[in-house]
């Protein structure tokens, strides 16, 4: 079905932004305030997350590598927000030149899609290690998934590929730049390559979203099935609770990114057509509002680390309480880090880790993947401990 765009009040020529002012004057202050808040909270949360991952967390695995890179991508995205705040605070006037405008805009989108791709990789890693590794238990499975080397290589390739794609986007002129303007709706009838590239990134998002749905859906079903098979075991309730928490990741991912990418296809399609001034204004306004939800994800990532991961939560509270001299219990070891590491090792000595895309779903014993008769013969219950 072809999309029909409003054709009233325009001729065959494309409206210029000068004859069709796009920005809503009433939105300048709210946008500046909201982007400022996202920047401040996101900066504090992601710096705290990196501090925990580098200094308080000793477990080295693929999920930790991916989460560090998610935090780094969020920080680069957040570094672009002060330029948007400045733009709106100055009356939607850009004074830093067209090249800087393209650099800020493209780096924002690059790191948004790097973060999205990393979330898909984390869910795929968890799915393969929990659901699809039966062959590896017999020594003939994907051994490259067992350590963190594959995640390091994948992150290097992801960042390298992203830079290779974004540099031409910054360097090549489109011919539709307007002096003093940035972040506004643009026609791309003479820059179709960039429009098609944007549609390709939309397709990448929906692919990642499908991977998330399948991976976490099946992992959660496995946990719920385990809790139902042995409702009397001590950790049965924790399996069910952890399964429900896994859907928090999908919920927040959906809230932040699905509205924007649902609308994005119509937005890009309108850029390739002659559309009315009213349509251009509607597209620009809707894009700004949807983009706020996408930027909000950089604030929610650290909250999910804290909420879904018990070890992150405990290590952070312990370290902050000691820093603020609010920890009243006598110290057992010389540092909270040593105590945390000893506790982490004791909980993980005999169980593989099941991590979520923002933290961990828990420690699952091999009984989750064992045959029914094996589970019935087991006298010890599985232990779940949320991962940081």
Automatic annotation (TrEMBL):
Record domain G-protein coupled receptors family 1 profile: where:
45-305
The record gives the membrane topology as: Multi-pass membrane protein
The terms under GO molecular function for this entry are: G protein-coupled purinergic nucleotide receptor activity
Stored Pfam families: 7tm_1 (PF00001)
Any one GO cellular component localisation term in the record: plasma membrane
Instruction: Please give the chief subcellular localization of this protein.
Output: membrane
Q: Write down the InterPro entries for this protein, in alphabetical order.
A: GPCR_Rhodpsn, GPCR_Rhodpsn_7TM, GPR34_7tmA
Q: Which SUPFAM superfamilies match?
A: Family A G protein-coupled receptor-like
Entry coiled-coil feature ranges? none
State where the protein is found: Cell membrane
**Family stated for the protein in its record:** Belongs to the G-protein coupled receptor 1 family.
The record describes the protein's role as: G-protein-coupled receptor of lysophosphatidylserine (LysoPS) that plays different roles in immune response. Acts a damage-sensing receptor that triggers tissue repair upon recognition of dying neutrophils. Mechanistically, apoptotic neutrophils release lysophosphatydilserine that are recognized by type 3 innate lymphoid cells (ILC3s) via GPR34, which activates downstream PI3K-AKT and RAS-ERK signaling pathways leading to STAT3 activation and IL-22 production. Plays an important role in microglial function, controlling morphology and phagocytosis.
The name this protein goes by in its record: Probable G-protein coupled receptor 34
**Organism for this UniProt entry:** Sinocyclocheilus anshuiensis
């Amino acid at each position: 079905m072809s999309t029909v765009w409003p054709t009233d009040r325009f001729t065959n020529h494309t409206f210029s932004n000068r004859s069709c002012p796009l920005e809503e004057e009433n939105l300048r202050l709210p946008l500046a305030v909201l982007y400022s808040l996202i920047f401040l909270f996101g900066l504090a949360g992601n710096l705290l997350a990196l501090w925990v991952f580098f200094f308080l967390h000793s477990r080295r695995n693929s999920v930790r590598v991916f989460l560090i890179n998610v935090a780094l991508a969020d920080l680069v995205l957040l570094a672009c927000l002060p330029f948007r705040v400045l733009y709106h605070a100055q009356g939607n006037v850009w004074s830093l030149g067209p090249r800087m405008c393209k650099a800020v805009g493209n780096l924002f989108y690059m790191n948004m899609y790097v973060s999205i791709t990393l979330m898909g990789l984390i869910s795929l890693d968890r799915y393969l290690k929990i659901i699809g590794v039966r062959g590896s238990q017999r020594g003939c499975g994907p051994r490259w998934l067992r350590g963190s080397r594959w995640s390091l290589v994948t992150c290097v390739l992801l960042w390298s590929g992203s830079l290779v794609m974004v540099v031409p986007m910054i360097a090549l002129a489109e011919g539709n730049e307007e002096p003093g303007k940035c972040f506004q709706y643009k026609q791309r009838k003479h820059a179709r390559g960039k429009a098609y590239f944007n549609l390709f990134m939309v397709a990448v998002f929906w692919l990642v979203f499908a991977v998330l749905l399948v991976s976490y859906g099946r992992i959660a079903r496995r946990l719920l099935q385990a809790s139902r098979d042995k409702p009397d075991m001590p950790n049965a309730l924790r399996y069910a609770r952890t399964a429900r928490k896994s859907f928090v990741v999908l919920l927040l991912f959906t809230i932040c990114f699905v509205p924007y990418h649902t609308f994005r296809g119509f937005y890009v399609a309108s850029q390739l057509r002659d559309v009315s001034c009213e349509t251009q204004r509607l597209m620009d306004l809707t894009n700004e509002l949807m983009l706020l939800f996408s930027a909000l994800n950089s604030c929610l990532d650290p909250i999910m680390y804290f909420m879904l991961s018990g070890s992150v939560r405990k290590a952070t509270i312990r370290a902050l309480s000691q820093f603020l001299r609010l920890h009243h219990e006598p110290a057992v070891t010389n540092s909270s880090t040593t105590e945390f590491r000893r506790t982490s090792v004791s909980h993980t000595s005999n169980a593989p880790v099941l991590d979520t895309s923002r933290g961990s779903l828990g420690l699952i014993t091999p009984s989750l993947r064992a045959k029914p008769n094996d589970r019935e013969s087991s006298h010890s219950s599985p232990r779940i401990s949320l991962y940081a």
